[in-house]
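Notes to self after the call with IL:
- keep both proteins in one doc
- input above output, always
- annotate only the second one for now

Protein 1:
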Amino acid sequence: MPSEKELNVNLLDKLDMLERLEMADREGGYEKIKQQLAFEKKCIERKLYQKPPLTDSLQ
């Protein structure tokens, strides 16, 4: 089970994403939101598929 700190980090990441989407809406409406959603998806995929840091595996 994740710790409280891990949960808070995940929630803060989600808040950041929502704020970026709100800014995109103010700046350019639907098209800007679509672009921002594509960017957010790439960021999530990058985190999901990254390999663990080498420093963790050497210990």
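Protein 2 (the one to annotate):
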Amino acid sequence: MGILDDVTSLLGNAGGQAGGAAGNVLGAVQGLIGEQGGLQGLVQKLQAGGLGEQVKSWISTGQNLPINAEQLQQVLGNPQITALAGKLGIDPQQAAAQVAQFLPGLVDKLTPNGQLPEGGNLLAQGADLLKGFLNKPT
């Protein structure tokens, strides 16, 4: 199963959200990762914010530890979450909750060998493929 299949599967299991809404969250998460300097930058920020054990579990090949909206808001800050909410057209608490729901599985799928990818932005590549898939006419 390739990264596109993994991300599509992750979106399909996203708490009953419609594909379009899930795709919007994925796009917002992609933007968030880009704003943090890529996947490595986001991982470093989360680790520095006290979420090291959770992040380690997402990257490793074991079970993913969850995070909640409050933890995410605390580490990223209210301005970042508010901007993300604006992109999604929802309130900041909902945005933080949705990102907290997606992020562990997404990081897990983007680190299939238990290591952060080296070189190019793997998330951007996977998300671009997914966007093309979601935007195809049926």
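Annotation: The chain has one domain: 3-11+18-131. Residues 3 and 9 are 10 Å apart (CA to CA).
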